[in-house]
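On clarity, I found the account of how folds are encoded harder to follow than it need be. What matters is that the chain and its backbone geometry are given together, residue for residue. I therefore recommend that a typical entry be quoted early in the introduction. An entry of this sort, consisting of the sequence and the corresponding backbone structure tokens, reads as follows:
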Amino acid sequence: MSVLLFLLVCIVAVAGFGYYLVDDKGAANTAADITNTADQLLRGEYLVKAGNCMGCHTVRGEAAFAGGRLLQTDFGNFRTPNITPDVKTGIGSWTANDFWQALHNGKSRNGSLLYPSFPYTNYTQVSRADADAMYAYLMSLPKVEKQNQAHELRFPYDQRALLAFWRAAYFRPASYQEDKSKSVEWNRGAYLVNGLGHCSACHSSRNSLGANAGVKDLSGGELSSWYAPALTNSKEVNLAKWSPQELIALLKSGVNQHTAVSGPMAEVVAGSTQYLSDTDIKSMVSYLQAIPTVQVAEKDMLDKFMAGSELSAERMDAVMKQGGALYKTHCMDCHGAQGEGVTNIYPALRSNPGLLSHALSNPVRMVLSGGFPPVTKDNPRPYGMPPFAHTLSDSEVALVLSYVRNAWGNKAEPVTPAEVNRYRTAAME
């Protein structure tokens, strides 16, 4: 009994240590004067868009910022809260310090620990002045009375007190520190990419406890059955090979001559990056293109796959023949006989890194569900892709994807019907 008591005391002590250690108490008491001037509100609106707050805190077709959107994870389902100024159900009773506490320290108004599904690990870098402007803008919005929904998490992840251990291991409040050796433009880009823009929240892999390697980790990861590609991998999104203008076009319009965004990234462009100033977009591009690219050795992935599987060369020939016939019927009119696509309209499939990725979620979901690039000022009438879930079977989707992943010089692992079925049956928002 004494041993168990000792262990219990140790656990409580460590939890308390984790709770208090990762708290920047001093910063929360340095509130700037909150003045709801027109300039302050415009600045706050701009910053809220830069952080894409509405993207997570709004259910499609319902009131903006009223919460309730579902976020599916391996730990269960999270529901975003109401952040309108409604006193009863939103954040109307919050002070500017309370709001800063959430962004900087990852704690709610009552001191309870927030789950890192809210990316405070990134937002901790947001400056106090920016946080106050965001708060002022949110307080100016219409009040929406909408009750928050409880998270639906598996045990033991539903035990909020255990977050103290997670925070002790993976979180430290840290305001952005300027790198004096870099340009003003680079530093602004780093602040937006790593902090307010929270790019690593999607573009990074996570361990079994949902932690990544930090705000600078852009090595790619899967979330809610979508894959956010690595931004540092020469085989996925080789940003170093793009011109700055090409990356700017993608972030502002959702399309460029190489690709078009879809899925969650289309929402980011639609609700966030298209509204950023040219100066801020250029700063983000400057930072992103300065990140060292990890060079991945060229390998004949098809030969490797065939050598280690029961798929014979004869069978692969049959796959290419059947897949090619399906491509000619359903895909060629838009994407071209040689997978060349149409610049800024239909993405090229030849040498398309998203199509050739080891992660199959994006291409499979696009074939099954279709999709559109975002509607933006620079691309007001985007061309879209129709869904084929009701037209093609799992086997047919696997055949056509295997074909396009290995035609016109492409080389990637063939796709199996089971892999297609995984995403056909996966829950979608």
